[in-house]
Design brief:
159 residues; alpha/beta; Alpha/beta knot; EC 2.1.1.177; methyltransferase; S-adenosyl-L-methionine; rRNA (pseudouridine-N3-)-methyltransferase activity; Ribosomal RNA large subunit methyltransferase H
């Protein structure tokens, strides 16, 4: 299985980079996992609705340029479907069973995802009704993908 995590912005925090690198290393036994960063749009603190939409649109175009036609897209969004770790594992297992070997998880920038990205998504996923920094979500996501593979293989992992 080839998994891409397409995300807006550069990761600067060393502790997050280290955590993500650790889970990527662990995931190597199960899947090829690639993190693709697209540039974020610089924006002032105060934005109008129109400016916010324009920024999401530009970031969305960059994201969609990295998504291949035959890729199953899972967009992370606060309004997405919440799932347990076991349900995520089951979703990934079903995708593999039905020949969907390319999966892209998409994490938007601080303003979220554009309508075009949401329309391209085959499914949406929410980790919580709370808002998290998109940089932190990379670590949380890669850990949950690792956990999903462990669950699917019947391998022990802390609960």
């Amino acid at each position: 299985m080839n998994i891409s995590i397409i995300t807006v912005g550069k990761l600067k925090e060393k502790y997050l980079k280290q955590g993500i690198a650790e889970y990527q290393k662990r995931l190597g036994a199960y899947a090829k996992v690639e993190i693709i960063e697209v540039a974020d749009e610089k924006a002032p603190e105060q934005l109008s609705e129109l400016e916010m939409e324009q920024i999401k649109q530009k970031e969305g175009e960059r994201i969609l340029a990295k998504v291949q036609q035959d890729t199953h897209v899972i967009a992370l969004a606060i309004e997405g479907k919440m799932a347990t770790s076991e349900e995520l594992a089951d979703d990934l297992d079903k995708l593999a069973t039905y020949g969907k070997s390319k999966i892209a998880f998409i994490i938007g920038g601080s303003l979220g995802l554009s309508d075009d990205v949401m329309k391209r998504a085959n499914q949406t996923l929410s980790f919580s009704k709370m808002t998290f920094p998109h940089q932190l979500m990379r670590l949380v996501l890669v850990e949950q993908v690792y956990r999903a593979f462990r669950i699917n293989r019947g391998e022990p992992y802390h609960k």
